[in-house]
Amino acid sequence: MSSTAVEDATPSGVVDAPIASREMQEVISRKDRIRMSPWKINLLTRQIRGLPVVEALMQLKFSRKQKGPPLVAKVIQNAANLANIRHNLHPEDLMVAEAFTNRANIQKGIMIMGRGRFGLKLRRYSHVVVRLKEIDFDEALKGCKNRFQKQRWEARKKVAEEVRVARRAAGGAKGEE
């Protein structure tokens, strides 16, 4: 409780009810100098943009790319862990608000060819930035354009509630022992 809430207390000791709309929490994670072309990683970051964290990790798990998905998944998992530590948010309550790739430095080398010729070999590096935000299920349900989207968001909300209840039950069982 903030100090202003205590000062605004009524004489009977009752504090005003908290404001219903609260700020949605956000977490940003970044991985620098990935030894992979930004064009290749950008394909993956475009694919996961706007998805809930659990679905984004599943998309990356079944991606046909070889090197990129574990790197991007690690950045998402790192952001989800930060959200859990800082704001007590679990992956079911988070979605990928932003995911993008920036170009890092380019390392130049010599590519030796036949007949005494040579060329430049460019080794491209990139940075990956992922911003996760807390899902507002009610707002997402209002913004649905068709019944299929609505069904999907209702299913996601139901799964998140079930996971929350299971975590509370597991926490209560640990506390009793």
Written overview of the protein:
- The structure is a single chain.
- With 177 residues, the chain is an alpha+beta fold.
- 46% of the residues lie in helices and 25% in strands.
- It contains six helices and three strands, in the order αβαααββαα.
- It has a three-stranded antiparallel beta sheet with strand order 1-3-2.
- The longest helix has 30 residues, at 147-176.
- It is elongated.
- The chain starts with a helix and ends with a helix.
- The relative contact order is 0.16.
- Residues 1-19 have low confidence and may be disordered.
Instruction: Find the count of extended strands (DSSP E, 2+ residues).
Output: 3
Give the strand order of the largest sheet, numbering strands 1, 2, ... along the chain. 1-3-2
Radius of gyration: 23 Å
Instruction: Compute the number of helices.
Output: 6
Mean pLDDT: 88
- Spatial shape: elongated
Strand content: 25-35%
Measured as a percent range, the helix fraction is: 40-55%
Give a short account of the largest sheet.
3 strands, antiparallel
Helix/sheet category: alpha+beta
Q: Determine the N-to-C terminus distance.
A: 31 Å
Note the run of SSEs as H and E: HEHHHEEHH
Report the uncertain regions.
Answer: 1-19
